[in-house]
Amino acid sequence: MGRDGSVVPAEPPQQAAAAAASKKKTQSSRSWILLDSNGQGTVLDVDKYAIMHRVQIHARDLRILDPLLSYPSTILGRERAIVLNLEHIKAIITAEEVLLRDPLDENVIPVVEELQRRLPLASAVPAKDYPGGPNDEVGEEDESPFEFRALEVALEAICSFLAARTTELETAAYPALDELTSK
């Protein structure tokens, strides 16, 4: 029934299917960068359904990465993925790849570069050739699983970002506080 009480004819199944397909096509695709275990990056423009299918997570988990919704910083551990929402870093980490949202954002570019630098295993160089020997910290970092190396890069990046923001705020706040105490 229509709003005015009249009967509205149902669309034939073919037209309904076409309308659903056009709705699906018009849904906004998002820009992601896919980094594999070798640090090779590929920019993807895909919708949320393609991401959900690729990394096997639920829509509710993907929702925390939506920039239009206000979610606090979150790290979710799922069966096959780690979902990160840390300020500007919105990522999905699996055992084989990292998907980062908005790869052209000025705050995300350094994270992408660091991931590309640190994700590939340095297995070509024997541990004894590292400066500190086989027990050096660099050798231990290279042995950790892919997911942990990617998570470590993201956490270091967000900590550095927050430390820089804190320094900026302190620089602006201390003169004002000094002025208040002098008056």
UniProtKB/TrEMBL annotation:
It comes from the Eukaryota. InterPro entries: MRS2-like (IPR039204). One of its GO terms (molecular function) is magnesium ion transmembrane transporter activity. Pfam families: MRS2-like. Residues 1-23 are annotated as: Disordered. PANTHER family: MAGNESIUM TRANSPORTER MRS2-2-RELATED (PTHR13890:SF31), RNA SPLICING PROTEIN MRS2, MITOCHONDRIAL (PTHR13890). Belongs to the CorA metal ion transporter (MIT) (TC 1.A.35.5) family. This is Magnesium transporter. The lineage of its organism: Eukaryota, Viridiplantae, Streptophyta, Embryophyta, Tracheophyta.
